[in-house]
Each structure stands twice: as C-alpha cells, then as structure tokens.
Design brief:
single chain, alpha/beta, eight-stranded mixed beta sheet, 13 helices, 8 strands
C-alpha cells in the first residue's frame, strides 16, 4: 500500500476517533440542526416512496437474477446475461453509491447481442467490504477475479458511469490487453477531487454522520484512483467514447445532501471538495485520450436512465469497429487484427 493510500486511510481512522468528542462537547446545537435536517430529508423521501410504484429487483428488468460471490473477505452482488450469439462481453461500472439497476434500460437494448456483467461495489446493495486492500490495483484485481470466476473471457468492452468511469480506466490501465474499448458515461474527470485529508471539516463531518464506512472509503479513494490512472501517463490507446452531459444549474438544482447523494447527484462545489474547476478537468480528458470520440448532449448526470438509446448506440458503434466483429461480418480478415 503506498504512502498516499496509508494517509487517506489514517485520516478516516482519525475522523472516526475525533468525531464523537467533537459531537459531544463542541457543537450540540449544530448537531441537533443536522439531525433535524436529516429527519426532514428522510420524511420527504418516505413521502416520495409512498407516491412512487415499487421498483423491481435491480436485475429483474432484463430477466437476470442477482447473485452473491465471495472473493477473499469481500462479498460481491452481481448479475449476468449470456447471449447465444454474443458479439462482445460488456462490463458495467456504477456511479458512486448507485447499484446496477441504473443500467436496466441499457441492458434491455443489448441482451440480444452481447454478454453482460453488472456488479455492485462494496457498500452498495448486498455487496459487503471486508478487511481488504481498497487500493485501485486491488479494486481492479477483484473485478478481474469476478470475470474469471464467472467464465467471461476477454476481450471486454468496459462501460463506466460517473465515478465508475475512473474504475474502468483503472482496469484498462492494469489489464490493457483484455480491453477492446471503453464507454465513459459522464465520467468523473481525473484529478478533479481533492485528497480526503483536504476536505473541509464540515464535509468530513457530514460524511461521518450520513455515509456508511464503505461509502467514506470509496470517496476517500477518488483522488488516489485518479492519480493511479494519470501516473505514469501511459494512457489506454484503444477506442474510447466519452458521453458528456451538458446540464444547466437552473435545470437541475440541489434538493438536499441526502436526496442528491442517494439519487447519484453530488453538487461537490457546495462541499469544498473540488481540486480544480470541473470544466477544466473535463477539458483535460481530451489530452489524456486524444483518440476518444466525444458525444455531448443536454442531459442530467444519469444519462443511461434519461437517454439509454444514446449509451446503447455508443456501445454498439464501438463493438462494430472491433476487428474481431468486423472479421466475423466479413469486413476485414482476421490477420488485420495482428
């Protein structure tokens, strides 16, 4: 484990030790206000649930069944689909705190032509993080083990939303020979988030109150994940499609910390975690992946749910350009892959 990883983990441990006396002694009124805010958030959410039809099982919409697998001391919830005439194997990475049900509409449009694998990272759904290494290398290794255990042979097309976009880039960096292409769905730009130790005290405090230990660990790893992908700068050079949402603040306003966290929308500028302006960080992505095709559209952050056809089209267009698929269609010979 590197020095940065150790420092990030030590900050989490320090917060865990310091927060109880901080709560007990210094800010009783402030805590009462926070608890009241939390109660109001949950009351609003409960009212919304009462007015909203029950949601299906995350895997049910595409005829899948969620399963559990154990890897070392980590329990992973996953779902899979195998097509008899699969043209590719697609692996999906969810955004921060989101489960794989966010891919339901996209999966429905791909199940006839592709093998599909979805999973929830530890702390989401029924996935449980044990006492294991949370480093970027270890996260990629766990996905590698899951794919191998379930019998999905490379090459893969990786699709990542938001923070999941950094996870697929980390996997492609560690196993470039296994990846035929990436689709980044409004992916969190590399280097945009500060180290966890530099978060404002009120942000760390809020995370300690509202977020699970697994969620805090994943948030603490954002800076480390970005640095792992960027250093050294030997970026993935195969096909990449970046889908970028162009949403206006007037159209998508914050609804409150809890509701935004649980809906996969984090207005991080309100919590002091940006290392650089997100627009600048987004612009730098073109330098990291000069070969990437960028598709911008007016949409909210969860493009795969609002406009699933856009994501499906990106995946299928990337698959059609794979040499193996072209060979199968008689477009090029197998030798052209060499």
């Amino acid at each position: 484990m590197n020095t940065q990883q150790t420092h990030g983990n030590s900050q989490l441990v320090e917060d865990q030790k310091l927060m109880p006396p901080f709560i007990e002694i210094r800010h009783c009124r402030f805590i009462a206000l926070l608890l009241l805010t939390l109660g109001l958030n949950w009351t609003c959410m409960a009212q919304e649930r009462a007015q909203t039809p029950a949601q299906p099982d995350p895997a049910g919409a595409v005829g899948l069944s969620a399963k559990l697998g154990q890897f070392d001391s980590t329990i992973i919830e996953y779902a899979e689909h195998r097509s008899p005439n699969a043209r590719a194997t697609i692996v999906f990475e969810n955004g921060l705190l989101l489960d794989f049900s966010t891919w339901n509409a996209v999966a429905a449009g791909l199940k006839q032509c592709c093998n599909l694998l979805f999973y929830n990272r530890p702390g989401v759904g029924r996935s449980v993080r044990g006492d294991v290494d949370p480093s970027p290398e270890a996260e990629s290794l766990r996905l590698h083990q899951l794919l191998k255990e379930r019998g999905f042979s490379p090459p893969y097309v990786l699709v990542g939303h938001s923070l999941g976009g950094q996870y697929v880039q980390a996997y492609a960096k560690r196993y470039p020979e296994q990846v035929d292409g990436m689709v980044l769905v409004d992916a969190l730009p590399l280097g945009v988030v500060k180290p966890y130790s530099e978060f404002p005290w009120f942000t760390r405090f809020g995370l300690w109150i509202f977020a699970s230990k697994a969620a805090r660990q994943e948030i603490a790893n954002i800076d480390l994940m970005g640095k792992y992908v960027m250093e050294p700068a030997d970026f993935y050079r195969k096909p990449v499609i970046r889908i970028v949402a162009q949403s206006s603040p007037q159209q998508h306003k914050p609804q409150g910390l809890i509701k935004d966290l649980l809906s996969g929308v984090i207005y991080a500028e309100d919590f002091g975690v940006w290392a650089i302006d997100p627009d600048i960080a987004e612009g730098r992505m073109s330098g990291y992946y000069p070969q990437a095709e960028v598709r911008s559209l007016s949409a909210n952050h969860r493009i795969q749910e609002q406009y699933p056809a856009v994501v499906i089209d990106a995946i299928t267009s990337l698959i059609k350009n794979q040499p193996d698929v072209q060979a199968a269609l008689g477009v090029v010979s197998k030798e052209a892959r060499q």
